Amino acid sequence: MSSRTITRRVRGIPTSDGAGVKLTRVIGQPRLDSLDPFLLLDEFGSDAANDYIAGFPDHPHRGFETVTYMLDGRMRHRDNHGNSGLLESGSVQWMTAGRGIVHSEMPEQEHGLMRGFQLWVNLAAKDKMSQPRYQDIAPEKIPAAEPAPGVHVRVVAGEQFGVTGPVNGIAIEPVYLDIALQPGAKLSVPLPNDHSAFAYVFEGDSVHVGAEVLGLRELGVLSHGDLVELAVPADARAARVLLVAGRPLNEPVARYGPFVMNTPEQIVQAMRDYQSGNF
Ligand code: MN
């Protein structure tokens, strides 16, 4: 069994998106343009309403999936097909935009902490024009495992430690884990050998990945391998890390804002379809 190592370290850059929501872009920025099949990773987190209150008014998506993992706060989504739902603390939404949706993602709170992640997952060429699909998963539907002393894992997607995450039917076979490690805890996580994977530390001081140390708010791109070994030293603070893996698509990517296709011609078509109300 081969252990994965860190091949690249990336820190996010502060930016804003939507109508002015402050966030940190970790994937999808000059230091890490993408990590096939992952196109973007944003972390948002603030208890200052001005940082998030403007939200994300109506905007389109075509050709990929957006995965919103809410740690704290409440966000309402509505789309042009009549779907609506509330994302609450601890919930996840796996939205397959497919051929196109126009939606809004707006805070349903005027104060307090809003914290979470949005990940963009590319779709294979054959799936880019599929029907849109939502998987809105309530917090209590996300199973947890305690595979080692001082370790608590929420399994959003994938089969890990005897539990199966609720997200299903996604072609890249995602693993999406929220792993909490107490001081002195360690854990070995099996992953499909050739799937792309990253770890992102979002609480605590640092997490050991094999023989290396990944700092707070640092993303480690992981080498191929059968497993990743995580640990927190006994004298460090408890930590929390997002561990995500998926099968790379190895297809050409043409990307323009909220449209991710395979060719420039398909991007032009996406813009035409959006502007003529065909999403
Ligand atoms: Mn969106």
Round the mean pLDDT to the nearest integer and report it: 97
* Spatial order of strands in the largest sheet: 1-22-19-24-17-14-13
Strand content: over 45%
Characterize the overall form.
globular
Question: How many DSSP-defined strands?
Answer: 26
Question: Gist?
Answer:
The chain has 279 residues and is mainly beta.
Task: Characterise this structure.
The protein is mainly β and 279 residues long. It has one domain (6-275): Jelly Rolls, CATH 2.60.120.10. Helix content is 4%, strand content 51%. The chain has 1 helix and 26 strands. A 7-stranded antiparallel beta sheet has the order 1-22-19-24-17-14-13, with no helix packed on it. Strands 2-3-4-11-6-9-12 form a 7-stranded antiparallel beta sheet, with no helix packed on it. The protein has a 4-stranded antiparallel beta sheet with strand order 5-10-7-8, with no helix packed on it. A hairpin with a 2-residue loop joins β15 and β16. The protein starts with 5 loop residues before the first strand and ends with a helix. Bound molecules: manganese (II) ion.
